[in-house]
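A reminder from the course coordinator: this example appears on the midterm review sheet, so study it carefully.

Given structure:
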């Protein structure tokens, strides 16, 4: 299905402040390309509250995001929260470096901003699945539960914090500033400061005095959470790293709490990012409304399944979803919502 519509169609172009600061020229070129084919309204929301207001007033305008993966994730998260994903496709013009735009590339978006802008004008719509947890948090690409510890800066966790979903090597720089979500220690105060979406890395976090207070509170609560959680997450009797987690996929037990799990990786069917079976992650899994789950219990020992729902239970664990830190939590369930949103991609994608 062609993304290009009749002449005179209007676009709402949402520009991340970080993209504007990082590469204002690419932002300008992308807007010029879009302006040649459409009536364009451009906005640069200063924080998440403003972004939410902008999205609530977009009307019939087709939505285009100029920014990195976090900007795309935040927009999809807000649209999902308000049941607006079916209103129309989302276009993304990636502006960022390295792993900051790896998710967009893995979903088939052109890597050069000018090419991505042309795809918005002449591309096609691709319907994609979402992974959604029990609290409404969305995952566009994949998630990762590491073998040991609560992710974040601190003794014994620095190396783990440098690894992104699927082992991509991204450092979640926002660990200190982003309020982890879940039901672990300290999360109530952090959630009051930011309901699952305070992400200053993309420029849409809290600002001013409130932002400074929230940042400090988030750091304090995260430090307290790590201190409380660390003893719970050490392997019994030492030895190989691993967390004692119970893992169920569609009701089938993949791991119980008696044996340590070294790594759990989950991919959305549409995303190539971080897959272990080929260059650039290898081919995408079948688009059948199932996620792909890889569980490693020991070096050289792993199991791989496809499932519609996965539940992970443990004493306390953190996870990375679309390169963002989540938790600590005692339990989390992710469920596939098939074809929940549409992305504008080049015609050949």
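Designed residues:
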């Amino acid at each position: 299905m062609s993304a290009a519509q009749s002449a005179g169609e209007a676009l709402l172009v949402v520009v991340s402040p970080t993209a504007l600061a990082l590469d204002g020229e690419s932002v300008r070129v992308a807007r010029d390309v879009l302006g040649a084919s459409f009536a364009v309204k451009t906005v640069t929301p200063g924080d998440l509250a403003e972004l939410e207001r902008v999205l609530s007033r977009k009307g019939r305008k087709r939505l285009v995001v100029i920014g990195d993966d976090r900007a795309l994730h935040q927009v999809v998260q807000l649209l999902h929260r308000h049941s607006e994903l079916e209103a129309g496709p989302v276009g993304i013009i990636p502006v960022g470096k390295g792993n900051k735009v790896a998710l967009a590339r893995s979903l088939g978006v052109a890597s050069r901003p000018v090419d991505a802008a042309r795809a918005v004008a002449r591309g096609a719509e691709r319907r994609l699945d979402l992974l959604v947890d029990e609290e409404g948090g969305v995952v566009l690409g994949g998630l990762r539960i590491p073998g040991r510890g609560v992710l974040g800066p601190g003794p014994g966790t620095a190396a783990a914090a440098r690894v992104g979903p699927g082992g991509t090597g991204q450092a979640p720089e926002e660990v200190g500033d982003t309020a982890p979500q879940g039901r672990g220690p300290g999360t109530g105060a952090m959630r009051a400061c930011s309901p699952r979406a305070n992400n200053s890395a993309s420029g849409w976090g809290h600002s001013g005095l409130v932002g400074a207070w929230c940042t400090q509170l988030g750091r304090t609560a995260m430090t307290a959470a790590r201190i409380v959680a660390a003893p719970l997450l050490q392997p019994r009797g030492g030895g190989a790293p691993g967390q004692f987690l119970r893992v169920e996929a569609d009701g089938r037990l993949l791991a119980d709490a008696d044996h340590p799990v070294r790594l759990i990786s989950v991919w959305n069917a549409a995303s190539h990012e971080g897959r272990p079976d080929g260059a650039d992650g290898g081919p995408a899994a079948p688009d059948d409304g199932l996620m792909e789950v890889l569980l490693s219990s020991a070096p050289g020992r792993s199991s791989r399944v496809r499932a519609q729902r996965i539940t992970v239970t443990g004493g306390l664990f953190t996870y990375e979803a679309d390169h963002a830190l989540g938790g600590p939590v005692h339990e989390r369930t992710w469920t596939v919502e098939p074809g929940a949103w549409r992305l504008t991609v080049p015609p050949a994608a």
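The mean pLDDT is 76. The first strand starts at residue 10 and ends at 15.
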